[in-house]
Amino acid sequence: MKSNPEKANYWRQQIETFKTSGLSRVAYCEKNQIKLSTLDYWRQKLSNPEEKNGLNWIPVKIAKDSSPGIDLHVGRITIAVKPGFDRTLLVELLQTISALC
User: N- to C-terminal Cα distance for the chain?
Assistant: First the structure.
């Protein structure tokens, strides 16, 4: 079934009006003769996908560091990985930590 852009725009406007009305969902629906379940359906349908999935973006600041490499934080453990590290040792270390977690 294709979505109707006019219908979606109508509900976007209703939802925005509801948000700024200061009314509860029930009061808004009664005042505007809208079924509560219909308002809730369109609020869910038109909500931000990140909000639906529980994803929240946080800002990340990358600091310039004079020393190359990275620090891996696994629980309370920090592993400093510098250029020229022993890959086999790192893999074994991570496997051991993984088995303990």
Answer: 46
